[in-house]
Amino acid sequence: MGFLFSKRFMPLFVAQFFGAVNDNFLKNAMLIMVTYQLGKSADEIGGISNLAAGLFILPYFLFSALAGQLADRFDKAPYCRLIKLWEVFLMLAAGIGFLWCSLPLLMTVLFFMGAQSTFFSPAKYALLPTHLKEDELLAGNVWIGGGTYLAILCGVISGGVVVSLSRGPLFCGILLTAMALLGYAASLKIPPAPSPDPEKKIDWNIFRETWRIMVVDIWRHPVIRRCVYSVTVFWLAGSLYITQMPLFTKIKLGGNEMVCTAFFVLFSVGVGIGAGLSHRLLKGSVRLNRKYLFCIVAMGVFTLDIAYLAWHLPEQPHLLETGVLLKTFTFWRTAFDLLMTAVCGGIWSVPLQALMQKAAEKEVLSRVIAGNNIANSFYMAFGAIVAAALLKAGVGCCWIFWGIAVMIFAAARFTRPLIAIEDEEK
Taking CA 371 as the corner, what is the angle to CA 234 and CA 283, rounded to the nearest 5 degrees? Predict the structure, then answer.
């Protein structure tokens, strides 16, 4: 772990940490403002919430192919600085949006923050194998992954608290801008990372380049293809968990908003713990083993137990007092299942990011990461649409949990050859 506080890693970690805090601070503060301060109806709140999620994820579809090309074409250090400077101006605009209570301006900023994250992500992950040694690569991904989930927690909690203060809109603008400046200052310390292909020509046809990345750079490479598929299933499962837990908590457990928020926090903490445990499980190497595969299967088993609860528990006619709910075995069983699911998920996802970075050619690494982002965002959006349609058709959330478990077991089967490949290399 000697690299942790070195110039090779710490500036990048700090820059990405504050960026992730800002993303989640902005989203949650805006939704809290819409829900409690702008007097919107329930239907309007639901529509705005879905629109916000869509606007943030849309740039991953539109710009990931271009982002991957640019990160491969130019030195990644000044490229990251430019992107972080872009974030400073966006946060200034967000501060104005909060002061004016301007929902259109905040939505516009949210879209461009999604675009900023889209352009930063390929460069961020491509910097790790550039500046870290091979035996440091997994640990670097662990810190980035764990730091991201900590940043999500900080952003969600602080955004909801600050915007609710008497001068919340003003404080929101100040804090967002301050964190963006800290991220930009950290990016100034990122060491140079010259392009492996400085003569590459940029293809501005994003649809053609997206197809080329997904088919040539990912699908034709068996290790990368399996990594991308498996990571995509993890993000799809995680997003479906997040979207189903409010309904499950209210209808099946009788829990209120605080209980649901506690489950969200528990899930994020669990993934962070799992990311840290992955380093110990794999002994600092990106070589997968059978214990790793067991963790994926275990995630499916814990999901099955939640699906079983959702199937057998009767619907609660009213919300229960939190103190009463805390005395029930069902609550603690759900909390345990959710925590262990998240821990296993953290163990599952982080090593695959490191293995992907190791397996990809340096000349196309940023584009491979961009392709992974495209796949993740597409299936998360598709899964959300399918889940919403099923619920509207009267299908219970238990069936969605059953479906999540099936996807996880399928991913474990698809990931199994990666362990055989690693065994052959030993």
Answer: 50
**Residues contacting residue 304 through CB under 8 Å, at least 6 positions apart:** 401, 402, 405
Range of lowest pLDDT (18-22, 116-120, 391-395, 397-401) = 391-395
Tens of pLDDT, residue by residue over 173-215, are 999 999 999 999 999 999 999 887 788 889 889 889 989 999 9
Judge whether residue 165 has pLDDT over 70.
yes
pLDDT at position 64: 93
The DSSP secondary-structure symbol of 221 reads S
Question: What's the Cα-to-Cα distance from 328 to each of 53, 254, 323, 325, rounded to whole Å?
Answer: 34, 11, 9, 5
With beta carbons less than 8 A apart as the criterion, state whether 138 and 355 touch: no
pLDDT at site 50: 67
pTM score, two decimals?
0.84
DSSP letters spanning 365-376: HHHHHHHHHHHH
Contacts of 325 (CB under 8 A, 6+ apart): 253, 254, 255, 259, 331
| Euclidean distance between CA atoms 60 and 347, whole angstroms | 25
Q: 80 phi and psi, to 5 degrees?
A: -65, -40
Give the number of other Cβ atoms within 10 Å of residue 201's Cβ. Answer: 8
Which tops the pLDDT comparison, 36 or 323?
323
Q: What percent of the chain has pLDDT over 70?
A: 94
> For residue 327, what are the contacts with CB-CB under 8 A and spacing of at least 6?
none
Domains of the chain: 1-188 (1.20.1250.20), 213-426 (1.20.1250.20)
If phi over 0 gives left and psi between -120 and 50 gives alpha, with beta otherwise, what is residue 101?
left
Helix (H) / strand (E) containing 135: helix 134-163
Contact between 367 and 64 (Cβ < 8 Å)? no
pLDDT at position 321, please?
A: 82
Sign of the alpha-carbon dihedral angle for 136, 141, 143, 146: negative
Tell which residue, 145, 192, 137, 191, has the closest CA to residue 1.
137
